[in-house]
Amino acid sequence: MNHRVLFTWIFVHCVASLLYSIHGENAVPEGENDELNKLSENKVLDRSIKYNMRKSLDLDQEGCYLQTGKKECLEKCSFNATAKTIFIIHGWTMSGMFENWMHKLVSAVMQRENEANVVVVDWLSRSQQLYPDAVNHTLGVGLDIANMLNWLQEELQLPLQNVHLIGYSLGAHVAGYAGTHVQGTVGRITGLDPAGPMFEGVEEEKRLSPDDADFVDVLHTYTREALGVSIGIQQPIGDIDIYPNGGDIQPGCALADVLSLTGNFMDVLKCEHERSVHLFVDSLMNKDHMSFAYQCTGPDRFKKGICLSCRKNRCNNIGYNARKMRKRRNTKMYLKTRADTPFGGYHYQMKMHVFNRKHSDHADPIFNVKLYGANNDTTNLLVDVQDGKIGLNLTNTFLVFTEDDIGDLLKIRLVWEGEADSLGSFWKYFKSSLWSQKTKPILAVRRIRVKAGETQKKFAFCAEDLSKIEISPGESKTFVKCPDGWDVKPRKRVPM
Ligand SMILES: *[C@@H]1O[C@H](CO)[C@@H](O)[C@H](O)[C@H]1NC(C)=O
Ligand SMILES: *[C@@H]1O[C@H](CO)[C@@H](O)[C@H](O)[C@H]1NC(C)=O
Ligand SMILES: *[C@@H]1O[C@H](CO)[C@@H](O)[C@H](O)[C@H]1NC(C)=O
Ligand SMILES: *[C@@H]1O[C@H](CO)[C@@H](O)[C@H](O)[C@H]1NC(C)=O
Q1: I want to staple 225 with a disulfide (CB 3.0 to 4.6 A). Which of 97, 167, 230, 400 is the partner?
Q2: pLDDT at 321
Q3: What are the residue boundaries of the PLAT domain, all occurrences included (predicted)?
Q4: Enclosing domain of residue 444
């Protein structure tokens, strides 16, 4: 076990034992009917839930508070009923204080939407409890928010379509309850790594679901499972469900990476869960550098590069810039990201037919590619073959991700890792040292077809010298624009 796995395991174990010792496996929030009755009697006046409307980017300023039924607060806060209204809802907390991400998210939202009513829903007193108790409060807090929205509708004719609820972790399910119980339909709910424990696999009414708003988008960043539980919910629960980096292992979240950056151990535990917030903040701040996600049935097919299509709305921006699509449910989408902001990178699908020319039936080649672009070149990138092996006499498809914009692709160098590169693997070393001139494995690659995910452009690259298409361990071949044409099957570009 590496350290990250170990500590995650400990953390999850704590959460899990907390859950199971108190509630048993099929725990369900109690008291739902009580809360519903209270709402119908219109008596929910729980002042422990606060609606802090942010007025200034200076986060030390307290802002002002909205209270259901108190009209004077609306004026005092200069609530603008024709502008967007964005509620930010935190999750379970151990400290009983706002965490750093909250400040980042609030200021990013305010900078992007400077006329919007930005309201932080403060339910700290109810969330700073044992996890199962905090879960038990999500319905009540959701109802309270629904109540607030109903009042705003009555008082100011607030159009619910302009309301966007953003919930992190447990807060995502709070937003779900608010959306279920409000009179009408809110415009949008964004779930940032919605909590998994006690929500995975439960009925739609008891968690965030596509019916809770006109558009429900979800970012899943910490779905790795330990002991049958994951901190973030694994199943798709929105209209679109985006799984950056497969939804589990986030780059930059390894123990050493985080400790060297912040020196704080808690940050290691939170890194992947909180990544959802930082990706969302990134989407608010970096409007010119949007990240795209691509619809795919699963992470393995995505990693093979099969799913880079934008046809029929199969791709979308992530985070705040996500476009509402014709109503669909639980559409899983994937992308790779960088380890830090700006998180967006560039995806390429590559297809090449690898011919087995000689002695290669068991050669098990390892390929690298280097991409040369108009602006910059990449380093040697390992061709990550999802099935573990390059298929011989077959067309192989794989995904290449670059962090930098290299500009239009000009040429590709394909490298078959030779002896010098495979010292890590004794068997490969042993095998390759046996290769004499007579038994040297020889493969051949004639063309590499490329599709760029971000631009949807397709290109074909041919061996520089078409009479020399053979490659052996330790050698490289360069592929340039094919003489018979640069673009392949030019297609209408999909407007982003
Ligand atoms: C859940 O909340 C209700 C009130 O909302 C309370 O009566 C009940 O005891 C709580 N259950 C647990 C396990 O805390
Ligand atoms: C209220 O918001 C609308 C829409 O964003 C804007 O046009 C209007 O100027 C705002 N009113 C005030 C008083 O800020
Ligand atoms: C690939 O084709 C070559 C020549 O047609 C043949 O010799 C070889 O056995 C085939 N290899 C595999 C793995 O199918
Ligand atoms: C090219 O990439 C290298 C490393 O990835 C980077 O240091 C350099 O600044 C880039 N150059 C340009 C012109 O973008």
Answers
A1: 230
A2: 96
A3: 346-481
A4: 346-433+440-481
